[in-house]
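Supplementary notes for students who missed Thursday's class. We covered one full example, reproduced here. Read the sequence, then the structure, then the short commentary at the end.
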Amino acid sequence: MDIVNEALEFEKAKMSHMSTSDRVVASREVKRLILSLNEIYKKSKDSKLMDLMKRLTAKKKKIEKRLNGRPDLAF
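Structure (token representation):
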């Protein structure tokens, strides 16, 4: 269950004032954590794991939104 502890630590980490390269690394790390947790979830069907994956996914979306920037709305 080291991966669960690692995921909980990542969830608690502050994400403000990160450089672009830090955001890329964080995005890759959270993706790795989510996929690892998903493998465990497939076997155990533990709802706590699903909740953790959902929270990590929300954090990943915030990181990636900042990475991708705003789309051009000019037509």
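Commentary. Residues 2-11+18-68 form one domain. The mean pLDDT is 86. If anything here is unclear, bring it to office hours.
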